[in-house]
């Protein structure tokens, strides 16, 4: 968004940037960081509970997880709470995978690539991947607790935080490498 406006009104400036490779890389990085600060606003609002997911959505997602797990382990459900071995797993809005989706949205749309249809295509392709990864995150956390009594907080808050962050970075790198020829010219 910002790169198109700048390109339209500052063509002479762009000519200087085109001639100097180092300056061009710095400029692209600056545009990326500025765009990232703008496109990260929905993620900030979601993370700080300014955007709130309705309780019915959380209940339905918890029920979906319950259906996946009920034939494998001893589990019960009460609204958005899954109970496994007397431990309560509260399915809150952080559990539904929207943070990962908003993060990949921010990074993809912040990348100063001028073809928005490509950004939209990759973003839509990555949504089911991140959603599926999120389900694996929750199910594996419950499995590791149920079968091996591994600390839930370690698996969920440390291991999966690292894996999810790496997955988002890898997906963005795939997007970037396949489309870097569309960077600002």
Topology:
Layout: H1 2-9, H2 11-19, H3 21-39, H4 41-47, H5 55-69, E1 76-78, E2 81-84, E3 87-90, H6 98-110, H7 116-148, H8 152-179
Antiparallel strand pairs: 1-2, 2-3
Helix pairs in contact: 2-3, 3-6, 4-6, 6-7, 6-8, 7-8
Provide a compact summary of the structure:
This protein has 185 residues and is mainly α.
Explain the overall architecture.
Helices cover 71% and strands 6% of the residues. With 185 residues, the protein is mainly α. 19% of the residues are buried. Helix 4 runs antiparallel to helix 6, helix 6 (98-110) packs antiparallel against helix 7 and helix 6 (98-110) packs parallel to helix 8. The longest helix is centred in the last third of the chain and has 33 residues, at 116-148. The protein has a 3-stranded antiparallel beta sheet, with helices on one face. It is built from 8 helices and 3 strands.
The radius of gyration is 21 Å
How many runs of DSSP E, i.e. beta strands? 3
Secondary-structure element series:
HHHHHEEEHHH
* Helix vs. strand class: mainly alpha
Shape: elongated
Main β-sheet description: 3 strands, antiparallel
**Uncertain ranges:** none
Overall mean pLDDT score? 92
Kindly report the spatial arrangement of strands forming the biggest sheet.
Answer: 1-2-3
Strand percentage lies at 5-15%
User: Alpha-carbon distance between the termini?
Assistant: 15 Å
């Amino acid at each position: 968004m910002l790169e198109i406006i700048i390109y339209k009104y500052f063509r002479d400036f762009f000519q200087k940037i085109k001639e100097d490779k180092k300056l061009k890389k710095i400029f692209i990085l600056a545009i990326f960081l500025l765009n990232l600060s703008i496109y990260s606003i929905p993620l900030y609002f979601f993370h700080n509970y300014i955007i709130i997911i309705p309780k019915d959505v959380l209940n339905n997602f918890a029920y979906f997880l319950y259906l996946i797990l009920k034939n494998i382990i001893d589990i019960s459900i009460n609204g958005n709470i899954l109970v496994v071995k007397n431990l309560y797993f509260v399915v809150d809005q952080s559990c539904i995978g929207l943070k990962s989706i908003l993060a990949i949205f921010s990074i993809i749309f912040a990348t100063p690539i001028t073809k928005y249809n490509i950004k939209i295509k990759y973003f839509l392709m990555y949504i089911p991947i991140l959603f599926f990864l999120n389900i694996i995150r929750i199910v594996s956390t419950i499995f590791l607790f149920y079968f091996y009594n591994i600390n839930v907080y370690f698996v969920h808050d440390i291991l999966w935080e690292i894996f999810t962050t790496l997955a988002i970075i890898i997906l963005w790198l795939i997007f970037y490498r396949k489309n870097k020829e569309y960077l600002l010219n």
